[in-house]
Amino acid sequence: MIPREIPLLTPPQRKIIGFGLGFAAIVGIFALTTFSLIMVGRFLGEFSGVIWPIATAGILALILRPVVTVFERRLKLGRNAAVVLLYGLFILAVAGLLFGFGPALISQILDFVTYVPTLWHNILAWGDRHFPEWLEISRRYLDNSSVKGAMDKLTLEMQDFVAHLVPSLKQAGAGLFGFFGFIASLAIIPVYLFFFLLSGNDDPTKRLPEHLTFLKPEYRDDVIFLLREFIGIVVAFFRGQLLIGCIMGVLLAIGFSIAGLKFGLALGLITGLINIVPYLGSVLGLSVVLPLALLQSDGGGLGLLAACIGVFIAVQAIEGWLLTPRIMGKQTGLHPVAIIFAVFFWGQAFGGVLGMLLAVPLTAFVVTAWRLVRRKYFAA
């Protein structure tokens, strides 16, 4: 009788080892992804002054290419003439806005900057009148060395956060050379944009397959599909957010000015434009507008505070029920909590405003890629 071979591992042992190998693979993938994000974030942080102008110009080119194509077809113009016409119309529009609203807007911004110390003094005086016990407690604890050290550390963190809001702000703070470097980065964007728009290829991925011949056809098709999806998401998001931000800025500026808020024109426009990063404009705007409405010297108080809150609620309702559904539709399909988390996550991962601006498109792209991989490769 031939003895039966005894298996090396029993079924429970095979399950345990299989589970361990699967878990190790998941941990390895997570570690590799984390390491890749850290390296990309460091790269972007190190070369942000070079990357963000060309990235801005690329996104603007994707948004404006249909306009150039319309000029070509409707007006029978060449590509160069259509791009020059677009630039000319843009310069005329900017000049008209500057001559019409520029002096008042710049004046309000400068006046607000000089008014900030007065506003801070009014906040402290108001707190001393209404909540003296809380201020006394805070002053007593702020004298403690441990609390003072923690507050100093928090102040440094906030300064670092503000420095990240503009990618080249750290470089600009390094001296006169950094300041001129930042100005040069702004000035080079129209040059990049001009040459991007001159390209007659409306599909940036049209010639990509000939550079991916090392991939199998099915994988190559997936890569091209995902890139097209990402470009479509970026274009739809920024085109929609820019339009929504401008409309919200105008509505907020009109509402604040009618309510009697100081610097209402400037604060409304800036708040609306910052909403290009979802929810950031509303949070920053409320944190500035509400104390100012309550404590401004002439006409401030609970009435102005309630009026400004009403303006915020009305504009947010218009944005949520009318503007976003009609302009953006369901381009991202992300829950508001996911959007807020994405803004902080990608802002931290990519070290500043570049990550915050791309947070929603990147998250929507990751969701799209996961759905494709799950449906096509993990279906079994």
Explained architecture:
- This protein has 14 helices and no strands.
- The protein is mainly α and 380 residues long.
- The protein folds into two domains: 40-103 and 141-202, no CATH class; 204-380, no CATH class.
- It is globular and about 90 Å long.
- The protein starts with 10 loop residues before the first helix and ends with a helix.
Tags for this entry?
380 residues; mainly alpha; 81% helix
Short description:
The chain is mainly alpha-helical and about 375 residues long. The chain contains 14 helices and no strands.
Question: Layout of helices and strands, plus pairs?
Answer:
Blueprint: H1 11-46, H2 48-75, H3 79-130, H4 132-142, H5 145-165, H6 169-172, H7 176-198, H8 217-259, H9 264-274, H10 280-295, H11 302-328, H12 336-349, H13 353-357, H14 359-376
- State the end-to-end distance: 42 Å
Described by the principal axes of the CA atoms, the overall outline is globular
Q: What's the alpha carbon Rg, rounded to whole Å?
A: 27 Å
List how many beta strands DSSP finds.
0
Average pLDDT, rounded to a whole number, is 75
Tally of separate domains: 2
